[in-house]
Every structure is written in C-alpha cells, then in structure tokens.
Predict the structure.
Amino acid sequence: EAQVTQNPRYLITVTGKKLTVTCSQNMNHEYMSWYRQDPGLGLRQIYYSMNVEVTDKGDVPEGYKVSRKEKRNFPLILESPSPNQTSLYFCASSLRTGAEDTQYFGPGTRLTVL
Amino acid sequence: AQSVAQPEDQVNVAEGNPLTVKCTYSVSGNPYLFWYVQYPNRGLQFLLKYITGDNLVKGSYGFEAEFNKSQTSFHLKKPSALVSDSALYFCAVRRALSGYSTLTFGKGTMLLVSP
C-alpha cells in the first residue's frame, strides 16, 4: 500500500532531551516536507526537501533539524526540545516538486514536551 | 505573501442538507488551490484541487469546489451532507509556477453534520 508512515505516533518527553521523529514513504517521491499543526494556526511548514541531500527551511524552522540521506526517509530532529514545540507534526510527500503536485500526508505524531 | 482565509471556525449542517465551507485566498499571480480533510486522530486526506480549466472541480466523497477568480474564492460544497462528513477541513494555496512554490494552509473549518 502506498503510504507515508511516521514514528512514533505519540511521544511525551522532557525539555532538552533530544528526539527524532521518523518519516518514510514508499512511493519514490522526490519531495518531502514537515509541518506542525497548532489550534487556530492551521499547518505551518518546518522544513522541506526537493531531493536527496537537498533541504530548505520553511516558515517555522527554529529548533528543528532535518536530513535527507535516502529518498524514502526524512527524519525530523529536535536536539533540545522545549515546551513551545508541543504540537501535532505531519510529514508529507509528493511525486515531484512542482506547484501543481498533490502532497500526501502521514498519520501525524503528537508530541508533548514537559 | 500568500494567505488563505477560512472565515468560519465551525459550520453546522443537518444530514441531507447541502453544505458549503468557505475559502478565500491571496496570492501573486495565478493560484493552485487544494482542499484537504482531517478526520479525528488521522492525517490529512486530499479531497480535490484546482490547477486550470473548468472552474468547478469534482473530488472525493461527492465533494466539489468552485474557483471564482474575481472573488478570489474556492468554496467547498456537497449537495447532501452525511454525518460521516464531520471533520476538519483545510483549504490551501500555492502560487502557480512551473517549479516549486510554498503550500500555505488556512486555519481550518470544523464541519459538524447532525443526524
């Protein structure tokens, strides 16, 4: 089944403890992206990747890192999480990087930072 | 900067009645427009998109949306609502380019369909 998977789905952690949220797609998509969803703010883009080893900042990149060493994987790294990073995170991918391409989303990761 | 406005936080409709979820946008040049739906504890699912051509776009689950360039709107519609349509709906816009452009989302509208 074609899909975007994320792990873990739920995570509770403490301030300052490094964590990684994994994202993987099995559709050979070029483009991948991370968003955070907060009530009343919709989805905001954190980082995106146009292809392997090509990443760029979105609207809210502070406090996050990403890497794209393989086409299928795009992990999101929080090196020193803070409570304001408590949010619902979504990974998305699309076949190509064009503006008309539809992005397909993973199931989400709910992160709580205490 | 581009933006999307979904003026209603919540829309209530009775099952069997038509529904409309409103969306207006602001973007430089021509837009590409998208609707997504989010069911509880699920990711976003793609419903439909407008790229070019016919202003009335048909999508999944009986939904459709009408692109109105003069009013910069892209309202989501369905002729007869189902209780199972209750979910959070997001409108999104991208600047129409041959290459990459940022996808900007609205804040979302909660649709509640009562039996």
Q: What stands out?
A: The longest strand of chain B covers residues 87-95. Chain B is about 0% helix and 50% strand. Chain B touches chain A through 27 residues (CB under 8 Å).
